[in-house]
Amino acid sequence: MNARVDVMPVWQFLRNDGSVIAPALRLLPDGRIEGHQHVNEASWTLRDGCLHFLTRDGRSSTVFDQADRTAPGEVRMRGRFALEPTHEVWHLLEQIPAQAALAIGISEVMQFDAQGLRLRTSERVRSLLHERKVFFSRFEHSFGDDDSILIGADSAIEPYASFPASRELCTMGAYSYSESPLPVDVSVGRYCSIALGVDVFRDRHPMEWATTSSITYDIDALRGYRAFVAAHREFNGGAFEPAEPPDRFAPAPQIGHDVWIGQHVQLARGIRVGTGAVIAAGAIVTRDVPPYAVVAGTPARVIRMRFEPRIVDALLSSRWWELDASVLRRCDYREPERFAEQVMGLADHERWTPEALTTRQLLLALR
Predict the structure, then answer these.
(1) Mutual orientation of helices 336-344 and 309-318 as an angle, nearest 10°?
(2) Would residue 4 count as lying in a domain?
(3) In contact, 151 and 359? CB cutoff 8 Å
């Protein structure tokens, strides 16, 4: 197993419609392309200040003559596919995190970028998920070889987490499940129960500007609205400079332990839901929820606390969710105050710290 990640840039090779040609490749100093083999991209070179992909017989197949920065330290290059002179076919090279080098040579990798790692669910991927006790339904669930999963770039998934409604994996603690698909940047603690129809707010529009329309910023040629790109090309000669709205993407919600979220709840970005909280069905949660609070309404407000303050303090002090599931046999969970006392009195009051599954571990296991 080779766990080394080189400092040499790693690129994702795409078509202009966003489809992936090669999920991770490197341009080696000797002109070889590592991670992609095709008659049209047999090698690379620099000519006249442009990057050229070359065919096996030495012709230029794609000439990358445009470059821009997509994030600090990251570059995107764009070039026309020269072998299709009668069609507007464009290719892109997007610089991706260095650890994506681990994906080179792994046949199951479909995509690896800032969002996360997408894998075909081959037999060995399915076996790996089974070994790590990551579940996808109440009952046995079979994936096909043409199916895929996406694990968030920063996701950490503990054993006994369950994703019955989604094949996109966010951070999920042990014994938690979500009957709703969640964005991969959401964080969910242990023992959480998330019902159907739960949704997370997307990006905010700039109310402080003269217009809230995303025509002023959502015009990326690869991922923006094609209608906006076409409009700026026609009326502004393609020269319109987008301006990123302030605070467009707030952090995803962070959900504590033992949280119950009812059906059709909406969660604002940037909020924290405290341990032990309950969110009633249909609520729109726009601010932090205190531990062991019951909230309801639009916007949601605290309608009561689950327990008296002394019991809340005892449960929080016990940190019972940090023990393995045997705590539910050894201590009486039906009496919250007694339960907290029993947890604190366990002779073997040791914290359970299972190894969480991450993109890096997946790639290392598949190499």
Answers:
(1) 30
(2) no
(3) yes
- Closest listed residue to residue 352, CA positions, set 312, 331, 316, 323: 323
| pLDDT tens-digit map of 50-92 | 999 999 999 999 999 988 876 666 788 999 998 887 778 899 9
Model confidence, pTM:
0.87
In this structure, is residue 63 part of a structural domain? yes
232 is catalytic: no
Please give the Cα distance from 199 to 266 (Å, whole number). Answer: 5
* List 38, 91, 130, 205, catalytic entry: 205
**151 domain-assigned:** yes
CB atoms near residue 246 (< 10 Å): 9
Do 232 and 141 fall within a single domain? no
Do 295 and 330 fall into the same domain?
Answer: no
Digit-coded pLDDT (tens) for 185-233? 999 999 999 999 999 999 999 999 999 999 999 988 777 888 998 999 8
SS3 119: strand
